[in-house]
Amino acid sequence: MGLLCFLLLIPIIYPFLIIWKWFNDKRDQECYILDYQCHKPSDDRMVGTEFCGEVINRNKNLGLNEYKFLLKAIVSSGIGEKTYGPRMLFSGREETPTLADGILEMEEFFYDSIGKLLSRSGISPQEIDLLVVNVSMLSAVPCLSSRIINHYKMRQDIKCFNLTGMGCSASLISLDVVKNVFKSYKNKYALLVTSESLSPNWYAGNDRSMILANCLFRSGGCAILLTNNKSLKHQAMFKLKCLVRTHHGARDESYDCCTQREDDKGRMGFYLGKNLPKAATRCFIDNLRVISPKLLPVRELVRFVVVSLVKKWNRIGTNKGTSTQGPIKSAVNFKSAVDHFCIHTGGKAVIDGIGISLDLTEYDLEPARMTLHRFGNTSASSLWYVLGYMEAKKRLKKGDKVLMISFGAGFKCNSCLWEVMRDLGDGCSNVWNDEIDRYPPKSLANPFLEKYGWIQNEDPSTFKISDGLTIKKA
């Protein structure tokens, strides 16, 4: 009789067991950030205005037209005087970098930021279960992740990934790797390390599409400690809500707009094509189409559908030849679901374009603008400097939502949404803490124009290359 009752109960109990298993597995698939540490290189690597002039002056492949182009590019870049460059730049070896230069640049960052992060969190290197490293333009053997494992003597069963060639969007790609591994393993720690090596890729030629990268990219990096252990959520800073990756590599125009290549003289550099803004806009729009339903409230989605139908109805019978110029403004109010916007600091034009598209205020754009001014475009790690600015300004409160948006070669646009798990801003380790009170400054004007503006008035017929780019006083 007892056996019969048991057999009769199985069909009733089984669905509940399935539901419980699904819920139990789901709760261990969360992705939390416990802490992160951005890298601030030493002051002897600071790239000021006068030093920029020295570096440009050393390049004997440049002429007056290139000087004028660089002056315009630097002045309009949004970058200030306190960004950092690789050490080989300060020893005058930008034309002959070595593999050791690139590795040294990475090791300075690794041992500083990872060491500080693990020490502050109280996590031993042997407790790390997963290591993901992304540095796009440096491939060494042993790989960079192996160098970290060797230095910190991590476990032999650690799962490690070493990503290269992913560009400025690599940080969120690495995050996606962590998130997917967390789905299969419970209660794990992950270390995400993101940076870029400028040493092997500083361009010493005169191709404008390649020398532009020298004006934008600067040294930096970030180490992030993550976990899927639900019991640690009260210690966590952020919880990942959703992540969307968009890849336009199948489009030739998008694929070719941003590449590492050699010029016609065999000099290595990073090419930025004129069609880059167009490719970025297309990829950004497609990414927003996917992530919007994941983060917007139902009322905003309904409003968007109604507004779209009205606009479509009003367009019937109008002239189809009309077109709009500049960034396309989104019909969706992202502020209905997002409190803070963490934008990749790809340049002033990138920040301005996203600001227009999402209808953001200067308050929303301030973290990205200040990060670009203070640290420059640090490639994949730039998002974390922007996040650090928000934290140092004590903007991040429990329950707030933070939208990260990044772009990268390929061409890729990646985005994700974080939930703030507790009020932030009281930590002493933030890379901004010792100077946050000075931001935003009264003016973001670049002194390059004041010091080197005379070049605009030079006559090509009388200008001598030997004159160089020197400071002329009135």
Query: Which blocks of ≥5 consecutive residues have pLDDT under 50?
Result: 320-325
Strand content: 15-25%
Give the strand order of the largest sheet, numbering strands 1, 2, ... along the chain.
5-4-6-7-1-8-13-12-11
Structural class of the secondary elements? Answer: alpha+beta
Radius of gyration: 25 Å
Helical amount: 25-40%
For the largest beta-sheet, the strand count, sense and barrel status come to:
9 strands, mixed
The total count of strands amounts to 13
Mean pLDDT, to the nearest integer, reads 87
Output the number of helix runs. 15
Distance linking N and C termini: 106 Å
Shape: globular
Give the ordered list of helices and strands: HEEHHEHHEHEHEHEEHEEHHEHHHEEH
Key terms:
alpha+beta, 15 helices, globular
